[in-house]
Amino acid sequence: MDHSIINKYLAGEASETEVQEVFRWIDSDPENRNEFIQYKKIWALTSKSTENQDKTWNAISTKLGSQKKQLSITRYWMVAAGFVLVFGLGMLMQYILPQKSQEQFSYLAETRIEVPLGQMSNVVLPDGTTVQLNSGTKLIYSGKFNSGERIVSLEGEAFFDVTNDPAHPFVIKTKALDFKVYGTSFNIQAYPDDKLISTTLVEGSLGIIGKNGSELVKLVPGENATYRQDDRELLVGKVNLEIYTSWKDGLVTFRNEKLKDIARKIERWYNVEIVINNASLGEEIYLGTIMKNKPVDQILEVFSLTSSLKYRIVTRANERNLIYWDKKSN
C-alpha cells in the first residue's frame, strides 16, 4: 500500500478513488487493519507541530520497534517520508498563519460521507472503528477526530463497531439525542424525517445522552431504546437483535409496522417514489421478512402476496421511478 495515500486520507485530502483504495486494503487482511491503526496513531503524533521534532521521532522509533511484524527498510523510509511531509506542513502553517487562523484551519475541516438512496456503504474511521451505513445516510466528523476527539454526527441509520480507547470517548450526535460509547457494537436509526430515533446494543455498553448533557439511560446488550420526538418519551426493553441489525446482511424483518412507514424505508433503499392512493392501506399493519438485496419489483410482489396491497410501477427517464400502491378490492 502506498503510504502517501494513507497520509492524504488521514489529512482529509484523498480523492474518492483513493479513499476506496484505502478501505479495500484495510479489509483485505487483519494485519493491514492493525498496521493502519498503528500508523494513524503515529501520524496523529507527528502532526502536532508544537512538539519537539527529536522527541517525536524517538516516539516513532519506539512504536515501530515494539511491533512483531517489522517494516522492511524500503517500506520504513516510505513511511518516514510521509511523517516528514506531515511534520513539515505543520511547521509551515505555524510560520504562515497566525495562531488563531491555524486553529481554524486544523479544526474546522470536516469529512462528510453521504450514502445515496438505494445504496449502502462500509466505512473505516481513522481510529479503526468500522461503520456500515444504510441508504440515505450521512456521517460527519471533524479534523479534531485525528487528535483523539472522537465525535461524529449521524443522519440516517448505521451499525457501529467502535475501537476501544478509554482515554478518548466516542460520541455520536443526532438531531434529538447523543450517544456515548463505552467500547461496543450497536445500531442507530435517526433519519431526519422520522419521528422516532432507535438504538439497539449488541455488545458492550452505550449511554444515551439528552441534549442538555445528562445521561438518560445506559443500555446493556440485547436492549433497544426508542425515543419518540413528539412527546419526548424514551422506551427501553429487551428485543430480538436480528430484527434491528439484520439489514446490514441484506435481511429486513418487519414487526407490527404500518405500510406507510415501510413505504418510506423502501423509498430510501431503492431510490423510488411511492404514492399510496388509499389512506386505510397506509395504516395497515404488516409482519414479515424480506431480502433487501432483491430488486424492488420482487419485494413488492412479496408484499402483494402477503397483504392487501397491489402496486403499479411507472418508469421515468430522468427521475426516480414512481410506484403506486392501492388496496385490493374484495
- What's the N-to-C terminus distance? 63 Å
- Average predicted local confidence, pLDDT: 78
How many helices does DSSP assign? 10
CATH level 1 name of the largest domain:
Mainly Beta
What overall geometry do the principal axes of the alpha carbons give?
A: globular
Oligomer: single chain
Number of strands: 18
Order of helices and strands: HHHHHHEEEEEEEEEEEEEHEHEHEHEE
Rg calculated over all Cα atoms: 23 Å
Reported by name, the CATH topology of the largest domain is Jelly Rolls
Structural class: alpha+beta
Largest sheet: 13 strands, mixed
pLDDT < 50 runs, ≥5 residues:
45-61, 63-108
Description:
By secondary structure, the chain is α+β, with helices and mostly antiparallel strands. Helix content is 35%, strand content 32%. Strand 8 (185-190) and strand 9 form a beta hairpin. It is globular. The model is unreliable at 45-61 and 63-108 (pLDDT under 50).
